[in-house]
Amino acid sequence: MTDDIAALIRDFDAAVASIGVIGERLRALQARASTAAEPQSGANLDDLVRPGTILQKFAISRAELHRRCRDHPIGTPGGFSLWRSGKKSYLISLSRFERHFAEHPPLKRRPETKKRNSETR
Question: What is the mean pLDDT of residues 73-93?
Answer without folding.
Answer: 91
